[in-house]
Structures are given as C-alpha cells and as structure tokens.
Predict the structure.
Amino acid sequence: MTRVIYKYPYSEDLKVPKGFQWTHIGLQGDKIYIWLEVDPNEKELVSLNLIKRGTGWEWEEDENDYSIQSLHYVQTIMQGPFVWHFYWDTKDV
C-alpha cells in the first residue's frame, strides 16, 4: 500500500480518505492546515470530525451531537492572539 502526506485546509466538515493517520495541525501563513498521511488510492471518504475550541471556551456535551468521552486531543496552535485546541471526535470511527 502506498502512503503519502497530504495537506488540507481546516474545515469542520472535511472529508478525507479512510484509514488516515494524523501528522500535524498548524499554520501556514495565517491559515490553519491539517497534514494527514493517507493512502492516495483509497476511494472511501470519511468525515474527519475535527473540533476547534479556544482557551477558556465552554461547550455542552450534546453540542454538535458528540460526547466529551469520544473526544481525543490532537494539537494546540497559536494564531495571533488566539490559542486553538483541536480534538478529534472518534464516536463514528
């Protein structure tokens, strides 16, 4: 199986090839990007279910139909005065 790292612009409704592996979330210029290791031949796409929250933000457990227990921390980045924390919702994985 061939693997390659692809860069995706951050989006809450991003679809990516099934079987992806996390590589990095970061800034390039002033935009947030996600780098994933994927199989370029994989045709089935899955929702990434990436959730971005700022420091000090609160959210309800049923917001966006996810459970806090299914969230896994991925990475924190700084963007100007903001500090963003990214979680991967694995409830459908």
Observations:
- The longest strand covers residues 71-79.
- The chain has one domain: 4-89.
- Strands lie at 4-9, 15-17, 21-28, 31-38, 45-47, 50-54, 71-79, 82-89.
- The chain is about 0% helix and 55% strand.
